[in-house]
Design goal:
alpha+beta, three-stranded antiparallel beta sheet, about 190 residues
Length: about 190
């Protein structure tokens, strides 16, 4: 799938993801970029059962049939991908977040269903490696990294550092959750 056909607005997302084939193609391209593989044994020797929209692993083992939902936040959900994908688009595209009432009105599902979907989507977005929320006691520190102006040649100093203080230096900020990982940004 190219970026030209990726939906840019809610209306485009609703129309695009209303087609189950588009939903399946969209998720398969993102979940298995190198080709579909069995989540149980890792084999790439799989066949697609179009009538049920599942794959069948050619290796004999229990759980040989699997869908694109297996092992994701969509697993064990009676909702179709035509509801999940626009919901994810809405959550990701709203800078200030979205309430379950707003999601329920936009998708035409009950508020309880929208609440359930939001909890699963937010859970998937909380990744310890990329950040997540910091809780408890938190320490913050910042610093300016760069050469001292007094150690530079006069011509180079005028070129690199126009003023005084942090001008021309890189700002580094680090946040540490006590007993946890450090999250640093340049």
């Amino acid at each position: 799938m190219d970026s030209a056909s990726t939906p840019k607005t809610l209306t485009e997302a609703a129309v695009y993801f209303a087609n189950p084939d588009n939903c399946l193609t969209y998720l398969v391209a993102r979940r298995w970029p190198k080709g579909v593989s069995c989540p149980t044994c890792g084999s790439t020797n799989v066949g697609f059962v179009a009538s049920r929209r599942v794959w069948q692993c050619k290796t004999r083992h229990p759980k040989a049939q699997f869908s694109v939902k297996l092992g994701t936040i969509f697993e064990a959900s009676p909702l179709g991908l035509d509801k999940w994908l626009p919901a994810m688009w809405l959550v990701a595209s709203n800078r200030n977040g979205i309430s379950s009432w707003e999601l329920h009105r936009a998708l035409g599902v009950t508020q309880k269903t929208a609440w359930f979907m939001l909890h699963r989507i937010r859970l998937a977005m909380q990744d310890e490696m990329t950040g997540g929320k910091l809780a408890g006691e938190v320490e913050l520190d910042d610093s300016f990294i760069g050469g001292k102006a007094r150690n530079m040649h006069v011509n180079r100093r005028a070129e690199k550092i126009p003023g005084c203080g942090p001008d021309g230096k890189t700002i580094v900020a680090a946040v540490l959750r006590c007993g946890g990982k450090v999250h640093a940004r340049l």
